[in-house]
Design a protein that fits this description.
- By secondary structure, the protein is mostly helical.
- It has one domain (about 5-295).
- Helices cover about 75% and strands about 0% of the residues.
- It contains twelve helices and no strands.
- The protein has helices at about 5-25, 35-50, 65-90, 90-100, 100-115, 120-140, 150-175, 180-200, 210-235, 240-245, 250-260, 265-295.
- Helix 1 packs parallel to helix 11 and helix 6 (about 120-140) packs antiparallel against helix 12 (about 265-295).
- The longest helix has 28 residues, at about 210-235.
- It is globular and about 55 Å long.
Length: about 300
């Protein structure tokens, strides 16, 4: 697959991911957070179980279990639970914009874990993103669908911290493990982790059709399609290039939230959201130019 096709493919992947926050809002009308996470993992885990011949045996080397366990802990475990809790307390629109900080946090993760020195644009971008997210959260108003926006935004920020560490770990291990095998380990491992939590959660009083549709979207489109695509992109491109396209998440989330949930941001929130996106662009674009000149896809499809 050519680089331009990979970029177009990433656009589609992050549009799907952006819609996942709106789907979570629908699912919360009937199910608890642990139940939603378990159910969204159950379908892909079932599919990977049927197709076990496609990803077993694993090219296991001594010590790989530590990296694989961390990958599962970061995503889906920490990421999904923090994202779901975030959607309980904030709006899908705000959650989507906070998710735009992912490329910046990927850069920080590279600095901490890969000893990559942060550039001046990255530092400026971090400052702008922090100011933007803090300002948007400060001017948030509680509502029936967002009872505690500040707490919800904090959960959303924790979810992208987990996603950043996941991207760094996955970028390393995809050099030996196939995209399919990593996605299978994530789905099956996550489903087993959340099974007891889901069983001990109170049964829903009523199950709405919209909630079931939200779960189906999360399981099929996000859990199966988007995650395989995301892992494939990490195998072919640098983590910085992949992270750059997460800037599409707030755009798609805000669009879906406006059309389906009737959410709208205030003028002050829109201004601070613009500051966040400006920080993302400043931090990510220079990295993309360098990556485009130095790296090339490691394979073709």
């Amino acid at each position: 697959m050519t680089r331009n096709r990979l970029y177009a493919f990433l656009c589609l992947i992050f549009l799907i991911i952006g819609g996942g926050m709106v789907a979570t809002k629908y699912a919360l009308a009937s199910f608890s957070a642990p139940q939603i996470v378990f159910l969204r993992l159950l379908f892909p885990a079932f599919i990977y179980g049927i197709l076990y011949r496609r990803w077993l045996p694993l090219p296991y080397c001594r010590g790989d279990w530590k990296v694989l366990a961390l990958i599962v802990l970061c995503e889906p475990c920490l990421f999904f639970i923090c994202e779901t809790l975030g959607m309980m307390y904030t709006t899908a629109s705000q959650g989507g914009v906070i998710a735009a900080c992912l490329p910046i946090l990927m850069g920080l993760a590279g600095w901490i874990f890969l000893k990559e020195r942060p550039s001046t644009p990255l530092v400026i971008g971090i400052l702008l993103a922090v100011i933007g997210v803090a300002g948007a959260s400060w001017f948030s108003e509680a509502s029936e669908s967002a009872p505690n926006p500040l707490l919800g935004n904090l959960f959303m920020f924790c979810s992208i911290l987990a996603s950043s560490l996941y991207a760094v770990l996955t970028r390393r291990i995809t050099q030996r493990y196939s995209v399919f095998s990593i996605a299978a380990i994530q789905s099956i491992g996550g489903a087993l982790f959340f099974l007891p939590l889901a069983l001990f959660s109170p049964a829903p009083h009523a199950v709405h059709a919209s909630s079931l549709m939200g779960i189906a979207y999360l399981g099929v489109m996000v859990g199966l399609v988007a995650y395989c695509g995301f892992n494939y992109a990490l195998q072919q491109l640098t983590a910085g290039e992949v992270g750059l396209f997460s800037s599409l998440v707030p755009l798609s989330t805000c669009l879906f939230a406006f059309l389906l949930l009737g959410e709208a941001l205030s003028l002050c929130q829109n201004l601070f959201m613009a500051v966040t996106l400006a920080g993302v662009i400043i931090a990510a674009l220079p990295g993309r130019k360098r990556a485009s000149g130095d790296d090339s896809p490691s394979g073709s499809v």
